[in-house]
Write a structure and sequence with these properties.
InterPro entries: AcuC (IPR003085), HDACs (IPR000286), His_deacetylse_dom (IPR023801), His_deacetylse_dom_sf (IPR037138), Ureohydrolase_dom_sf (IPR023696). With 390 residues, the chain is of the alpha/beta class. It has eleven helices and seven strands. The longest helix is centred in the N-terminal third of the chain and has 20 residues.
């Protein structure tokens, strides 16, 4: 029997627009849903419409004073602090309501799995992984990833794995559970010396009871599909197999792509498709098939994000799209009216995603990071950092 997959969606997600010219433009969500619909990915799928997360739900992660600041910010003449009113996080009307709705979407996805109504659940509007307990950061007001995980913990979950494949470090989620051994956070990201937020070193591996349960894999600028996948397979599967999570939560930012304007990795849409398929396989193998899928970053709004996240939806729904599948003419015509950029013609960038496994003495650029992270955390899980079989 195929896993049951819930898709959380409402057009009201598009209200999370930080400013007219902000890089995090909700058009990417609209174009993704349009493309997935026109390719038949969502045929017969009744999407779930969320309610905004309540204050009590948000306060599982965020400080009450921060919620007060977010609510009052649009009417405050002199600013309210807490990281609000910056270039990254400008204040906008409806900020609390639209942010709480996205958090409510990720909560609804988590609830669908926890209550047995679905094995997998997707909220592409989610993945706002930088928001801290008491401040906004990196385009993120409320941390829906952490809010959903905190809710799952309250329901009695004891082992939750969070894997973040966004180009930026999943710092807000890591901070929320840094001393909690019930949550294993793994972040694959561009090296902190070369990209905001400047965190996510292998030596950031948790504290107190949480030592060993924060894992960071920094990748050098220019890393492409082969290097990224090499690093992922050298670190992530072994840790997940050791941890045996009851649910896998993934933040699937598409900003690792070579065309993304805010970062410097070199992945393709084909690489993204392979990542999503790998996450699906891991969820089935180590987490009993329970997979909570969230969006994240991605700033090539027209050429990359819609194709990448349509592959993400298709993968979660077991309706995989062939890479050579042409883009629908109606979608291309609609999107061409929004941008002067030339648009791709198919669901592929034409890239080969094959890669060599770590430990083959190939001398890849990513190997220094692989060795650093394995030596930092593998012994804490009873794994041999120098044995490629672990």
């Amino acid at each position: 029997m195929s896993p049951r997959t819930a898709v959380v969606w409402t057009p009201d997600f598009l209200a999370y627009q930080l400013s007219d010219d902000h890089p995090l433009n909700p058009v990417r969500l609209d174009l993704t849903m349009r493309l997935a619909t026109q390719l038949g990915v969502l045929d017969g799928i009744e999407t779930l419409a969320p309610q905004p997360a309540t204050d009590d739900e948000l306060m599982r992660v965020h400080a009450p004073s921060y919620l007060t600041a977010v609510k009052s910010a649009p009417e405050a003449p002199f600013g309210v602090g807490h990281g609000l009113g910056t270039e990254d996080n400008p204040i906008f009307f409806g900020m609390h309501e639209s942010s709480a709705l996205i958090a409510g979407g990720s909560l609804l996805a988590a609830q669908a799995i926890a209550e047995g109504r679905a094995d997998r659940a997707v909220n592409i509007a989610g993945g706002l992984h930088h928001a801290m307990p008491d401040r906004a950061a990196g385009f993120c007001v409320y941390n829906d990833c952490a809010v959903a995980i905190a809710w799952l913990l309250e329901q009695g979950y004891e082992r939750i794995a969070y894997v973040d494949v966004d180009v930026h470090h999943g710092d807000g989620v890591q901070a929320s559970f840094y001393d909690d051994p019930r949550v294993l956070t793994i972040s694959m990201h561009q090296h902190p010396l070369t990209l905001w937020p400047g965190t996510g070193w292998p030596g950031e591996y948790g504290k107190g009871d949480g030592v060993g349960f924060a894992v960071n894999v920094p990748l050098p600028p220019g890393t492409g599909d082969a290097g990224w996948l090499r690093a992922f397979h050298a670190v992530v599967p072994s840790l997940l197999e050791s941890f045996q999570p009851q649910i896998l939560v993934t933040e699937c930012g598409a900003d690792t792509h070579a065309e993304d304007p805010l970062a410097n990795l070199e992945l393709s849409v084909d690489g993204h498709r392979e990542i999503y398929r790998t996450l699906r396989e891991l969820a089935g193998r180590v987490a009993g098939g329970k997979w909570l899928v969230l969006g994240g970053g991605g700033y090539s709004l027209f050429r990359v994000v819609p194709r990448s996240w349509t592959h993400l939806l298709a993968t979660a729904l077991d309706r995989d799209i062939a890479p050579e599948r042409p883009l629908p003419a109606d979608w291309v015509a609609h999107t061409a009216g929004l941008t002067r950029q030339p648009l791709p013609v198919a669901m592929t960038d034409g890239q080969d995603t094959s890669h060599e496994a770590w430990g083959d003495a190939a001398g890849e650029r990513v190997d220094a990071s692989i060795i650093d992270v394995r030596r930092a955390v593998f012994p804490l899980h009873g794994l041999d950092p120098d044995d490629p079989r672990d």
